[in-house]
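Let's practice the habit of predicting before peeking. Look at the sequence and jot down your guess about where helices and strands might fall. Then scroll down.
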Amino acid sequence: MKYLFFDIECSDGKHICSFGYVLTDDNFKIIEKEDILINPEAIFHTGAWSKSKREKNVRDRGIDLAYPKEKFLASPKFPHYYERIKGLLTARGVMVIGFSCDNDARFIMRATEKYKLPYVNYTICDIQRAYREYKEVCDQPALEKVLEDLGVSVADHVAHRSDEDAEVTMLVAKAMCKRLDIDLKELIEKYPACQGEVEGSAINFKHVKGSVCEGGRYRGSNSLRKYYKTFVAHARNTKPKAGAKLPLKGQRLCLSTVYEDKHFCEMMVIVERIGELGGKYVTRASEATIYGEYTIGDKTCRRRKVIEDRLAKGKNLTKKSFKDFISLLGWNQATLDQKAQEYKQSIMNKAIE
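Done guessing? Here is the structure:
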C-alpha cells in the first residue's frame, strides 16, 4: 500500500492555484513529492473581504502564498493538469490522505464544474478526523494545535506551499502512529470515521455510531451548546479538595457521554461532589482511572472505544456500573435527583433575581 498526502492552496478561498502532494510507502518514506502550480483564473485575495475586518483583526489579513502571484498566473490552467491529478487521486493501491480534506475535495469539485470536466471519484482519509476521534474532540482543531500536542516540529517547512503542507500532514499521521504504537493502515482502521468517499458533487464520510465526528451534542440547539460549555468549564475549574484520607484522592473519573449529554444539572453536582471527595472529573476517557457506564436503548458512548482499548491493554482503569459509580460518591439515585433539583432551583432563583 502507498499513501498520497495532499494539500491545496487557493487564490481566493475557492479557486485552486496549487496542488501539492507527497507519495510515501508504509514506513513514511517519501517516494515522490511535487507542488503543481495552477493558474486559477481568479482574483488573488487571501484575507477577509471586508476592509474593516482586516484592519481590526490581524488574523483576517490573510496568508502569504509561497510564490509570487505572477508565477501562478504564468502556470497552466486546471484542465492541463486534470488527468494527472485524477490519476494521483484514483491510482490503484494508493490511499489518499489530507488534513480537513473535505475542503480540498470541494476545491477540486469546483474546478471540474468551472471547466465542465467530469467529477473525480476517489476514497479519502481525513487525518484531522482521526485525531479528533483519538482526542475525543468535537470541535475541529487547528493544525497548529495538533502539531503542538503531538510534538511535531515544522520549523524547516515552508507554510502555505502545498507540497510542504502535504508533508506536514504526513508528519501528523506519523506522530499519531508512533504515539499509539501502530502503523498507518491500523490507524485508519482504528478510526473508521476518518474514511470517506468523494462521489460526484458529494463527500460522504463513514457513519460510525458514537463518533465525535458525527457532531454529537454540537448538532443541538444553541442552548445545548451553552450548557455543555458551561459544564466543561465547571469540570475544568473544580479542583480536588486536599486531604490524605479523602476516598477519591488521586482518582480521575468520567461518565458515559450517553448520560453526560442529557443530564446537565446532575453532572454539575456530580463534578462538585467528586471534587469534595478528593477526585477530579475529566472529559477525556484517556485520562480516567474510573469510568461509569450508562446505557439506554441503542445509544453509544463516544468514549467507548478508548475505554475498551485501555481495558484491553491493562491500563489503570476501572469500569463501574452507573449505580456503583454514584455509590462512590456516597449517594444513591434519590440523593442525586434531590441534589440536581436543588441545583436547578438555584439557577431559576438567580434568573428571577
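How did you do? The chain has two domains: 2-214, 216-352.
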